[in-house]
Write a structure and sequence with these properties.
By secondary structure, this protein is an alpha+beta fold. The chain is built from three helices and five strands, in the order αβαββαββ. It has a three-stranded antiparallel beta sheet, with helices on one face. The chain has a two-stranded antiparallel sheet with strand order 2-3.
Amino acid sequence: MTKEESKKIAKIVVDRDLCIGAATCIALAPELFELDDENKAVLQDGWREKGMSDEQLMEAAQSCPVDAVLLYDKDDNQLYP
């Protein structure tokens, strides 16, 4: 397995306890994230099919001021933060 394959983002988790509804993830990836009734970011259904690159997903996660967007690879290793 190449280094690139091992870094592939396979799972995105929004930590609802950390999320403050700043919506920076939505500004960068409106096709992936939305605010729910509690003004917390949530993933839209079918995020992987949206065709976002790992770089775009990382950028959206890094935009969160409280690091509430967590990224994992297929082996459940945390890639960010």
